[in-house]
Amino acid sequence: MADILTQLQTCLDQLATQYYASVCYNLSRHSLVPPLQTSDPYSAPIKEEPKDEDAGEDLVRPLRPDSPTTFAANQLQLVRDLVIKEQQIEYLVKVLPGIGTSEQEQEERIRSLEKELRQVQEQRKQKRREMRVTVKRLENVIMGVANSDGRG
C-alpha cells in the first residue's frame, strides 16, 4: 500500500506541476497578450549565448506569442498530458486496498491477515528449531570426521 501511496503522491505532484506549466504557457504565449517583459513574474526569460564572447553576460529576450496554429497544437498536447496524468491518478486510487469495501469487511480482512501472520510466525519458529537440530547434527558429523582423520 505504501508503494501505491507514494506513486499517488508523485502523480499528484506532477499534476500540480503540469497545471502550473499549462497556466504559465497560456499566459506567456497567447497571441492576444503582448510579449511579456522580463520583469513580469509569469515570464520565463530565455537565455541566449552571448554574441560577444568578451562581454561575458547572458542576453535575455522576452517570450513572444506563438502562432495560432502552434499555440493550439501546444494547448492540445498540454490537455492530453493532463488527462493522462488524471487517468493515472484515477487508476491508483481505484487499486488502493480497501476501496469499495465496507469497514466491517476491512476489519475482517485485518483479522484474517493477523491470523495468517501468527501461523507464518509459528512456522518460522518451527523451521528455526529444525535448523538448530540440523546444525547440531552437522556439527556432530564434522567433529566425527575430524576425530577419525586425526586417529588415522
Summary?
Keywords: Activator, Coiled coil, Nucleus, Transcription, Transcription regulation. The radius of gyration is 33 Å and the shape is elongated.
Give a description of the structure:
The protein has 152 residues and is mainly alpha-helical. It folds into two domains: 100 residues; 52 residues. 68% of the residues lie in helices and 4% in strands. The protein contains three helices and two strands; from the N terminus they run αββαα. It has a two-stranded antiparallel ribbon. α1 runs antiparallel to α2. The protein is elongated. The mean pLDDT is 82.
Tags for this model:
152 residues; mainly alpha; 2 domains; two-stranded antiparallel ribbon; 3 helices; 2 strands
* Class from secondary-structure proportions: mainly alpha
Ends apart, CA distance between termini: 62 Å
- How would you describe the oligomerization state of the chains in this entry? single chain
Sketch the topology as an H/E string, one letter per element. HEEHH
Q: Order of strands across the widest beta sheet?
A: 1-2
Specify Rg, calculated over alpha carbons.
33 Å
Total discrete domains: 2
> What is the overall silhouette?
elongated
How many distinct helices?
3
> What is the percent of helical residues?
55-70%
Share in β-strands = under 5%
What summary fits the major beta sheet? 2 strands, antiparallel
Number of strands: 2
Unreliable stretches? none
Q: What does the average pLDDT come to?
A: 82
Subcellular location: Nucleus
Coiled coil: 103-137
Keywords: Activator, Coiled coil, Nucleus, Transcription, Transcription regulation
Region (Disordered): 36-67
